[in-house]
Amino acid sequence: MIISTNWLSDYVAHGLSTNELSDHLTMCGLEVESVEAVGTDLTGVVIGHVIESGQHPNADRLSVCRVDLGSEEPVQIVCGAPNVAAGQKVAVATVGTTLQLPSRDNPDERVPVTMKKAKIRGEESFGMICAQDELGLGSDHSGILVLDDSASIGQPFGDYLSAKGSAVSDNAIDIAITPNRPDSISHLGIARDIAALTRTHVTMPALTLPENGGAISDAVSVSIEAPEVCSRYVGMLVKGVTVAESPDWMQQRLIAIGLRPRNNIVDITNYVMYECGQPLHAFDYDKVGGSKIIVRQTSAESVFTTLDSKEHTLPSGTLMICDGDREVAIAGVMGGENSEVTDSTANVLIESAYFDPSTIRRTAKALGLQTDASYRFERGI
Question: Which of helix, strand or coil describes residue 266?
Fold first, then answer.
């Protein structure tokens, strides 16, 4: 399991360096397999003010900008973003700055690129006005990152982010969790161990409870037909959601632990799982037939399409989550494509359950499908 040192520090003020933290974890039986620095070195990236932005004389899709960087004279920067405009405050990688940018051959791979004075279609350019993905802050490359009015011209961009509560860099620690330590498969679980070792205390995350919207039983019924392998299944209905990108801080934390942000609903379930250890699953409530959830085992071999669009042949006896019409998830492993959250989802049914560890282990092994959820359920979460 991978944890973020920045994320861990929210729950325990341990005062340890990354190396000391790794040693403490290993000595208490949580073997550290690797430590990796994540994030972007933003040295040389400063806040600029776009004074002018005009059409490049030799290129339809480029703009020539004059940008104030807080020095004596504004600099000229050629920019290809469609949203650049005069009056904006932006992040500028100045000449000499090295950024880890997405590779042209493989966008998932990053390569070091050093900013140089250049001529672009005959116009001089001194640096680069940056997009979100170029700064390592997310995946958006649709345009440059436009900052709010609190940004000060010439201010180091890293200082601006720190003032906003966003981490510039992080460390990802990969820990080998043994089967007898399911209590440690989360940031809070690790925080408890570190708090004990450093004789400090754990700070639990602040909770704000939503207004009670009525009894869930009025909206959906839950029937457990296989209580010997599912002793507990609960649901919560959230109405009127807007599916969108998650806030930057959440995306950064998920990226640090090796997850790809998808949308705010899916990201929240992943965030909670890595925070406290409990896997959750979100269904599009309006796709749940008959407003029913039935937990039962298959009586014969069948085929099911998971939310990654892959078909799986399910052996008889596979524990499934069903609605009034069909199967909608492989219990404790992965949800189905037929009930997944999409951009048009308006109402979300959130699942939290306890499944028999041996049952989930057999299913995951039979399907060759180990997920973050099955990894935890197999260990008794």
Answer: helix
In this prediction, residues 31-57 reach a mean pLDDT of: 92
Q: What DSSP string describes 304-344?
A: EEBTTS-EEEEPTT-EEEE-SSSEEEETTTEEBGGG---TT
Same domain, 370 and 282: yes
- Rounded Cα–Cα distance for residues 102 and 91 (Å): 17
Contact 85, 53 (CB under 8 A): yes
The answer for residues whose C-beta is within 8 angstroms of residue 159's C-beta and 6 or more apart is none
Q: Would you state the pLDDT for residue 249? A: 85
Average pLDDT over residues 350-356: 97
pLDDT tens digits along 175-225: 999 989 999 999 999 999 999 999 999 999 988 888 888 888 899 999 999
**CATH number of the domain that 153 lies in?**
2.40.50.140
What does the block give as tokens for 222? 């839950």
- pLDDT (tens digit per residue) in 136-175: 887 788 999 999 988 999 999 988 988 887 777 789 999 9
pLDDT at residue 350 greater than cutoff 90? yes
Tokens at residue 78, please? 């050629």
One domain, residues 373 and 346: yes
- Are 77 and 110 found together in one domain? yes
CA angle 4, 6, 11 (to 5 degrees): 95
Q: Could you tell me if 34 and 159 lie in one domain?
A: no
This prediction has a pTM of: 0.77
Q: Is the confidence at residue 281, as pLDDT, over 80?
A: yes
Q: How many domains would you assign to the chain?
A: 3
Please, are residues 32 and 193 in contact by the beta-carbon 8 Å criterion? no
Contact by Cβ (8 Å): 257, 2:
yes
Gap between the Cα atoms of 32 and 22, Å rounded = 6
Work out whether the CA dihedral 109, 170, 265, 191 comes out positive or negative. positive
> pLDDT: is 105 or 369 the higher one?
369
Q: Half-sphere exposure (CA, 13 Å, Cβ side) for 80?
A: 6
The residue-averaged pLDDT of 284-304 equals 96
